Amino acid sequence: MPSAHYLPLDPQASDADDLEEEEGQQEHRTSMNNNQYNIRYHPQPAVDYDVVVDDDDNDDDRTPTMGKAPRLSRSIPSRRRCWIMPIMLLVPFCIVFLYFMLSSQTLGLGTSLEDVDDDYEPHNDSPNTHALNETLHICSESHEDGRLYVQDKPSSAYAQLPVIYFVTPTYPRREQIPELTRLAHSLLHVPRLHWLVANDHERCDTYMDILLNRFGIPFTHMASPMPHKFRNSKPAPRGVANRRAALQWIRQHNLTNGVLYFGDDDNTYDLRLFTEIRQTQRVSMFPVGLIADYAVSGPVVRDGKVVAFLDSWVAARRWPVDMAGFAVNLGYMSLYPNVNMPYKPGYEEDLFLRSIGLHIDQIEPRGNNCTEILVWHTQTKNKKSPVVRLEKKYLDGRSNLGALFRSLKVMGVAFASDTEGPLATISKNGKGKPHSYFLS
Asked: Active-site positions?
């Protein structure tokens, strides 16, 4: 009799013929193969029970284990083997096939110029499949254009032009303020521009607020520090947190009219660049000078269409371009809610352009069909801010040195100390004199 824990199943009307046939063949199957059983579950005394081993001896007690369903025999009827075996053979083949397919895509193998025109899904990196959710720290902001004249015309003369949102990632160093100042004097000539300055700093920089206000260019100054977990990475994803913050600012303001451009603070810009990118419909591209081994990076154009790219570091990137080598229409970018720039050094441009579903046929070549250089990847050699030894008692109002070094300290350019660094030399008529000679 079955255990009280396993109630017999009542056969369904549709199963009557099968049940009668199985009962008629039970004796025949047992005699042909003792390892084959009926796989339909009908609890009855003949069920294969779990084996319970007594701790005192090794005799098998074939009593059912309470709370568990009876264990069916592991042997499989031959009629099931006929379709299980092909599946078992097919699964390893599929795994190997998928491995080679994914490997070839990752390494950039098997890709021809014709393949570039195929549709594809954006890059499947996990940071790239979700919308940005950055916390914004806005330090100061001005939407008013304080310039009365731009290129000898009043600012109101340009009211119908699309706005260029010029994103500049920057970080504290002794060259930061002079480079922002130099860049600002280029942007002063560009009408209808909003400058998004994202500083890699934990706190807002008051001096930078004053500086940006002084230029009169509409701007937003934000603090966008790199996450601590990336700071010790080699290489570190520099500028990513800054650009992500700017993208989040654009999203929060629901901007769908205008052009986005990423412009580093140490680049050199031809003013014609801004006229070229302002009419971007989807994504425009152009060559950038002084990039890596070829001293240039940019699209290859044939018959007015971008067909490939010239860059000395391909690295399986679908879009091997420099950050300063493209501009994006905000209306087009707004169609992709998961626009992103993951923290992956060397692949920031590629993964950003993948996240907006860019197709090579959509690229608009600029710069006279990419024959002219309108932006240069110039770089200032960074040096550590020096410490100059000056007697503190002389850094008061009796000379300009006190105010001068306080200003240099605020900008991060140089520091004065009573005890550290080389002794500052003050000279007259070609001869160095003690500080007291001039300042006491």
From this structure: 349
